[in-house]
Amino acid sequence: MPAKGYVEISMEGCKGCGLCVIHCPSKCLELNTSDTNSYGLHYSYLAKEDVCIACANCAIMCPDAAITVYKKVG
Amino acid sequence: MKEGYEVVYKRPKTLLDKRMHYCPGCFHATIHKLLMEIVEEMGIQEKTVGVCPVGCSVFAYDYMDIDMQEAAHGRAAAVATAIKRMLPDRYVFSYQGDGDLAAIGTAETIHACNRGEKFTFIFINNGIYGMTGGQMAPTTLEGQKTTTSPYGRNVQKLGMPLKMAEMVSQLAGVAYAERVSCNTPANTRKAKKALKKAFEIQGKGLGTTFIEVASNCPSGWKCTPVESLDWLKNKVYPYFPLGVFKDVPAVKEEV
């Protein structure tokens, strides 16, 4: 099934709390545990690009408003 | 943005493009975001005045692109009263934590609610003094360990946690009192709805509106942000139930 949408996560804005990861219904987000941003924090990223359904649950949960959600038109 | 896609969700413009100083996973930042989304949606950026407390959210004026005023510790309700009386057409809210609203500022809060001052209280209740290093607050749960109650809160000596939303809902001046939380996307959406309703009631001038947020404090509770959601669900909500405690506009519509 082709992806219905995708998310952009600001690497520097993310604090690595993981609230987006546990609330993603399609489990497409992951916390990058091998790399850190300039603040020394792990950041979450879109690991499985083809399963995002653009529900925006991650963006609603993100305390730091670091996530932008895009949905396919039509 | 890729071609053929539309934006479903983006950071509100009213929330300044700054990195907030809150710990990872703190609901303070979530509530800042929700508030600014509401201000943007209602188009009241020029007409909104916020009052900051002393506590973790003392720098809230750095993040919100609206008029803000800093108040002395616990006195945000008094300052908000003055602003609302001088500028009755503005949307005024006081943004306070539990150390500010429920400890040092209890008198100001209760009397502002009793007088029915027509502004909105936003009360962030995380059951601990986060900024000063995790001391016991009036809203700390029974048996909860903090740096000043290392064996857990003893309710024989210190009393039971203070239920502010229930307390103020008994006062005649209060038009709307609700407790919300942000532990799941559904609850976060409900929290936004409640905040928006409070602003709308304030716009109609029906009385004081009081929104309590059952918040978390991963640093003070000594757990990860994800574990703090479990603590909220298992320990906090049984004592501080979510829901509407008073809704005068709805009652009036029914009659």
Give structural attributes.
heterodimer, A: 74 residues, alpha+beta, Alpha-Beta Plaits, two-stranded antiparallel ribbon, two-stranded antiparallel sheet, 2 helices, 4 strands, 26% strand, globular, B: 255 residues, alpha/beta, Rossmann fold, 9 helices, 38% helix
What CATH calls the topology of chain A is Alpha-Beta Plaits
Distance between the termini of chain A: 15 Å
- Counting structural domains of chain A, the number is 1
What coarse outline of chain B follows from CA principal-axis ratios?
globular
Distance between the termini of chain B: 51 Å
User: Which chain pair shows the most residues in contact?
Assistant: A-B, 30 and 34 residues
Helix content of chain A: 10-25%
Mean pLDDT of chain B: 94
Radius of gyration of chain B over alpha carbons? 18 Å
Assign the CATH class of chain B.
Alpha Beta
Strand content of chain A: 25-35%
The helix tally of chain B amounts to: 9
Mean pLDDT of chain A: 92
Note poorly predicted spans of chain A: none
For the report, how would you describe the main beta sheet of chain A?
A: 2 strands, antiparallel
Give the class of chain B from helix and strand content and strand pairing: alpha/beta
Number of helices of chain A: 2
Order of helices and strands of chain B: EHEEHEHHEEEHHEHEHEH
Number of strand elements of chain B: 10
Report on the structure:
The complex is a heterodimer of chains A (74) and B (255). In chain A, 14% of the residues lie in helices and 26% in strands. Chain A has a two-stranded antiparallel sheet with strand order 1-4. By secondary structure, chain A is α+β, with helices and mostly antiparallel strands. With 255 residues, chain B is of the alpha/beta class. Chain B is built from 9 helices and 10 strands. In chain B, strands 3-2-4-5-9-8-10 form a 7-stranded mixed β-sheet, sandwiched between helices.
Summarize the structure.
The complex is a heterodimer of chains A (74) and B (255). Chain A has 74 residues and is of the alpha+beta class. In chain A, 14% of the residues lie in helices and 26% in strands.
